[in-house]
Amino acid sequence: MPKTDSNLNVSREATSLRLLVENRLRSAIGSGVFKPGQRLIERELCEQTGVGRTSIREALRQLEAEGLVTTIPHRGPIVSTITADEAAQLYDLRALLEGFAGRECAKRRDPAIIGRLRTQYERMSAVAGNDDRSELLAAKTEFYAALLEGCGNVFVERFLKMLLNRVTVLRMTSMTQPNRIGRSLLEIGTILDAIENGDEDGAERACVEHINNAAAIALEALRRGEP
Asked: For this protein, what is any one GO molecular function term (predicted)?
């Protein structure tokens, strides 16, 4: 058996730490703790997270690959901004892919996936009235994770994850609009019902309608200069 190059050894603890830092920073961007255009200063991030610069730099590189962070020459990394036109294009693509994912979920009707979807839908319903939207966003993120896994297409799952990461701030914006949460839950409930019933056309239609409604609110906020 050939000798393994020691340089290829990976520390599981280091990998786990990197992922934890990525998730914390990604969550902070998505929840608006770090605003679009805000500088991300390594020293301050080290103090806030309690980790070293290497972990921060690795996490920032990953978030830059996802489009959440942009590095500006002579200025450093900032939270990425997004124009209304760019957001509209992202939502159009998301509607296409998510419609497909909903259709495939309904076609496959995986009991484990349906159980996860139902659990997260009930979790969303339970926390919908809270002033703090972080739990709602977390439950919705898990709902989408189950939807993407349930479609059975790793490429659709991969691209949709990238799009969802990119529009996280806009998702939070749309959820804070008056009456949107109630309508959003109804729309998600329609998606879930269609998947549970194996209604492929209905699931695709409900997914596209949900994205289009969220897009209209988020784009209106963007054009008003929010968030």
From this structure: DNA binding
pLDDT value of position 4: 46
Domain boundaries, the chain: 6-79, 84-223
CATH fold label, 6-79:
Arc Repressor Mutant, subunit A (1.10.10)
CA dist 9 and 115 (Å) reads 38
Q: What is the pLDDT of residues 172-222, one digit of tens each?
A: 666 666 577 889 999 999 999 999 999 999 999 999 999 999 888 888 877
How far is Cα 118 from Cα 193, in angstroms, rounded to an integer?
9
Calculate the alpha carbon distances from 156 to 2, 164, 167, 181, 207 in Å.
38, 12, 16, 26, 14
Closest-CA residue to 209 (of 107, 94, 111, 132): 94
Write down the pTM of the prediction: 0.78
| Residues whose CB falls within 8 Å of the CB of residue 79, separated by 6 or more in sequence, listed in order | 29, 34, 35, 36, 37, 38, 40, 68, 69, 70
Locate 211 and state its tokens: 């994205």
Element (H, E) at 168: helix 168-175
